[in-house]
Amino acid sequence: xxxVKWGVIGCGGIxxxxxxxxxxxxxxxxxxxxxxxxxxxxxxxxxxxxxKYAFDNYEELLALDEIQAVxxxxxxxxxxxxxxxxxxxxxxxxxxxxxxxxxxxSVEILDACKKEGVKLGVGLMMRFAAYHQEMKKLVxxxxxxxxxxxxxxxxxxxxxxxxxxxxxxxxxGGGALMDMGIHCIDLLQYITGLKAVEVTGFAGTQTFSxxxxxxxxxxxxxxxxxxxMVDANFNIPDAAAKCKLExxxxxxxxxxxxTISQVEGGDVSVLISDDSLGxxxxxxxxxxxxxxxDVELGNMYTKEIESFGNAVLNGTAPEITGEDxxxxxxxxxxxxxxxxxxxISELK
Length: 348
Ligand SMILES: NC(=O)c1ccc[n+]([C@@H]2O[C@H](COP(=O)([O-])OP(=O)(O)OC[C@H]3O[C@@H](n4cnc5c(N)ncnc54)[C@H](O)[C@@H]3O)[C@@H](O)[C@H]2O)c1
Fold this sequence. Notes:
Strand order of the largest sheet: 14-13-12-11-7-10-9-8-15
Number of domains: 2
Helix content: 25-40%
Order of helices and strands: EHEHEHEHEHEHEHHEEEEEEEHHE
Oligomer: single chain
Number of helices: 10
CATH superfamily of the largest domain: Dihydrodipicolinate Reductase, domain 2
Largest sheet: 9 strands, mixed
Bound molecules: nicotinamide-adenine-dinucleotide
CATH architecture of the largest domain: 2-Layer Sandwich
CATH class of the largest domain: Alpha Beta
Structural class: alpha/beta
Number of strands: 15
C-alpha cells in the first residue's frame, strides 16, 4: 500500500499521548521527521516512534523534499505561521483544533492552502469514533424522527498552571469552550447533519485565576428549528462529569456517556418510541426499554490519520475540511460575543 510521508510539528501532549501512537497503527503512514522547540521532546518522539529526523525548528523539517504532509500540534498561537510556511513548502496540512487564534486567521490559512494547492484537514477526530458514526447512521436513517433537542458536554479539571499557554486566551484563542466545547459543537452538527444558524451563550472564569474561560454554556438554534446545548468546563473534577451526549427526536432518543473522549468507549442507549403511542396523561416513562448500542471500538486518531492520508494519496477532499474548522470556531466566537453583549447572533 502507498504511504504518506509525514512530518510532525509539536511533540507535546496530544501528539505524544494520542496522535503519534495512533499514527503508528495506521497502514498508510511513514513517519519521516518530528519537530518541537523543546529539542528533548523532539528527540524523545524520534526514538519512540522511529522517525528519521528530529528538529527544533520547523524550517528544517519543511525543507525535506520527501515530506508530503505535516501534522501541526503546536500551541494555537503558533498555528498560523507554521501553516503558512507548510503551505508555501507545498506540504498537505492536518492542523489541530482550533485552527488558529481567530476565525479570520483560520480563513487566511485556508486561503493560503488553496493558493498553494495543498489539502487542509482539521483535527476534529471525535467524528471517527465508532459510536458517533453509528449515531449518525441512526439519525440519517430517520430512527429518531425529527431532531428537536440535543446536548453535548466535555469537561476536565484544569487548575492554574503558571505560564500555561492554554490558560491565556491571547495564546489559545479561548478557554474551555474554544478548547473542548468546539468538539461538542462539531459532533452535534456532524451526527445530526444539522447546522447552527443562531447562537447565544455564557462563558466566564469562575474558579481559577487565568483569563481564559473555565466555565461555558451555549445554546444554538439549528437549521431545522431544533435547539442544541453545549457545556464545557475546566473546573469539574474529571470523575464528576460523564461527558454526556443526548439527542432527542420525535420518535426517540440517543443517550450517551463517555463517548466524547480521546479514547473510544462509553455507554450508549437508544430508545425508539412506537409511532402508535398516543398521548399518555400519566407520562409513564417506563413502557419502553432502551437498547444498548453495540459497536466495534477502534482508535479515532488512527482513523483520522488514515483518512487524511487517503485524501492525499487519492487526490480527494479531506473528510474534515478547513471550512468545518472555521464553522465551529465561528460558533464559539459568536457565543463569546453573546456572553459579553447579551445578544443572540446569527451565524454568518
Ligand atoms: N484533538 C485532540 O484530541 C486534542 C487534544 C489536546 C490538544 N489538542 C490541540 O493540539 C494542539 C497542541 O495541544 P497540546 O495539548 O498537545 O499542547 P502541549 O502544550 O501539551 O504541547 C505543545 C508542544 O508544542 C511545543 N511547542 C511550543 N512552541 C512550539 C513551536 N513554536 N513550534 C513547535 N512546537 C512548539 C511544546 O514544547 C510542546 O511540546 C492545540 O491546538 C490543542 O488545542 C487537540
